[in-house]
Amino acid sequence: MKKVKQITFAARPTGLPDASIFRIDEVPLPDPKEGELQLKGMFYSVDPYMRGRMNEGESYVPPFQVNNALEGGVVAEVTASRDPKFQPGDVVHGPYLPWRTEMTVPASAVQKVDASLAPPSYYLGVLGMTGLTAYIGLMDIGKPKAGETVVVSGAAGAVGSVVGQIAKHLGCRAVGIAGSEEKVKLLTEYFGFDAAINYNEPGLDDRLSTSCPNGVDIYFDNVGGEVSDAVMRQLNFFARVPLCGQISYYNATEVPTGPRWQGFMVTRSILMQGFIIRNYASRFREGIEFLAPLVKAGKIKSEETVAEGFEKLPEALLGLFSGKNKGKMIVKA
Amino acid sequence: MKKVKQITFAARPTGLPDASIFRIDEVPLPDPKEGELQLKGMFYSVDPYMRGRMNEGESYVPPFQVNNALEGGVVAEVTASRDPKFQPGDVVHGPYLPWRTEMTVPASAVQKVDASLAPPSYYLGVLGMTGLTAYIGLMDIGKPKAGETVVVSGAAGAVGSVVGQIAKHLGCRAVGIAGSEEKVKLLTEYFGFDAAINYNEPGLDDRLSTSCPNGVDIYFDNVGGEVSDAVMRQLNFFARVPLCGQISYYNATEVPTGPRWQGFMVTRSILMQGFIIRNYASRFREGIEFLAPLVKAGKIKSEETVAEGFEKLPEALLGLFSGKNKGKMIVKA
């Protein structure tokens, strides 16, 4: 049987993961059975939420199994099909496919992508889970109204950059927070944010209040920690805080401590809500119909950081935790 | 001009207030002008939220002014009327009346109470702001479904006791947390909670998980701090947390610290929302229509702690912060 390369999850990390948790194996590629497809990976997605799947125990997605393949979003070409709806040459996307150079999967694990609408890799980003995460979190929890101020942390990331651009499209003031001068420039000059702040420079509180003269109505939080504390202090009455991620302490080994915001949330009637995009599958079509025309018209730009070569997957994933990516981090096979 | 007694706000407290912030003065009672009423106070409400009004600066209710009367909910008898809608002898209720033995106020500051439905003092509690707070917070933010588990902190208080009884009426499991064996007994034996926990005994986590075998779907939080941390650890996926009050640190002089729950809120898709009953005035009629028949039928019981004598108001208010009240704390003139 043909052998293909696989990125194997070698060991559960404690704290910040390093290269020792990955192993490259050769595994057999079974022939497709009835209802199955054989795929050749084109683009692989690495995402911050994968850190949670490296821990044992209950979470919203089952944990990765040690000695099995890691898995994530993949855009792939169909190389053999035993399902009448797919032909060799079709380009498909699956949100939970194994990290193998080629793979045999049930046809139900993938959907065809419309390459006429956008480059195929966009289905791992702005037209995939990250774009939909931005759309659902901002619209359903943030409920933006024209003229309001939307602050986004992790703003140069795959989700954050789309949040800011949707906010601008809806007539809001968009203010992004990111971790370098280069990212801050990208936010205002490329993504069109009204203002952007480098949280690694001193005076975050002052710069936030200068950038948000009317306070903050929506805080779309990808980061958590002290950056979030600074934004919380500026929240207006009736502010909404979609909690999308907390990457600043994904690698923490104990629950971190910080200010208890609950009293302030009472005083200001603030709403805070965690959400997981998997639970909004019935809304994906609506989200893609909202996003696709804006992407096609250039109103929502997608920034990708692309690493070349299947074997770069571990490095690309680890790079997320040191802020190496601008926009969506992708590995091209 | 006739003189009446007034409880004056003598000085802003730092931290836990004591008797030195109050002063009893004699002030003139003006004759009512066109559109005004003269009232004689019958029952005065003391409420935890008043602590916030003792601080300077912006909050959801304007701060008390030093050397002016304190104010709060009062049930009073009309002694003179220059408004055709009111007659001497009518019993009225106003949420923000001055703490005076008699007072002259605009007729628009009060509403008549229906004494056939419930004793007049109930309009300071279960049919007033505290009952409506329980109703709105539980229904609008908690969104209870039959079979779910509702945990209430400050459960023996004026709001908490009503939350638990509404939850029971809707077919939920109601679990109360309070600070003494006496209150715990009151919760299960009088108010009909399914279980109640004394947070001053050791093993809060264990006793919570025993009392909530299916986890916690709604946590109605009046208290905050470490009691809330224990409940947060038991929250189910998609749990809702109405934040009504945080009395455990109303007297704190710095923002207290505690676990950062945001990461957990993402993982479990948890919603947390602060609210202020003043912002729901358009729903008060609906709330009273829901509560009044249940009160009349004895399905929602009201517990009052009544102090006798107008001059007991300062002591009654201070008593809230040491847990002296069971149910609604009221002063009878």
UniProtKB/TrEMBL annotation, chains A, B:
Gene3D superfamilies: Medium-chain alcohol dehydrogenases, catalytic domain (3.90.180.10), NAD(P)-binding Rossmann-like Domain (3.40.50.720). Residues 15-331 form the Enoyl reductase (ER) domain. This is NADP-dependent oxidoreductase. It comes from the Bacteria. It comes from Chitinophaga caseinilytica. Pfam families: ADH_N_2 (PF16884), ADH_zinc_N (PF00107). Keywords: Oxidoreductase. InterPro entries: ADH-like_C, ADH_N_2, ER, GroES-like_sf, MDR_fam, NAD(P)-bd_dom_sf. The keyword Oxidoreductase applies. SUPFAM superfamilies: GroES-like, NAD(P)-binding Rossmann-fold domains.
